[in-house]
Design a protein that fits this description.
Distance between the termini: 52 Å
Number of strands: 2
Strand order of the largest sheet: 1-2
Radius of gyration: 17 Å
CATH topology: Arc Repressor Mutant, subunit A
Strand content: under 5%
CATH superfamily: Winged helix-like DNA-binding domain superfamily/Winged helix DNA-binding domain
Largest sheet: 2 strands, antiparallel
Number of helices: 5
CATH class: Mainly Alpha
CATH architecture: Orthogonal Bundle
Shape: elongated
Helix content: over 70%
Order of helices and strands: HHHHEEH
Number of domains: 1
Length: 116
Amino acid sequence: MEPELSRIAEKAQELHKSAHGVAQQLDQGADAVKAVLASEGISERYLALLSALYVGASEAGNPAPVRWLAESLGKNLNTIKDHMKRARRDGFLETTADRKAGGVVTEKARQLLEAD
């Protein structure tokens, strides 16, 4: 039984490291989005980056990704909600079929981000 417990402990450590790495990537992404917003305002590039970060936070299991975005960007929650609506309206983010948190970054957003 002890070897199994050892494997479980090792797996838990691996998962912890992985989760920490994801959190760091999301924080770095938030810093990049914040910088783009500060330099360009609500540009297409900002909306594409915001959409990608939102999807990343959702896929990482964040139960309230819009709230996390608002806190990470130092913006009011309603402001970020408006930006997310605009990102959807302008074709950077598609809602999932089940309409839960998350979504899909569109081809338009991917092309814009790849051009950077």
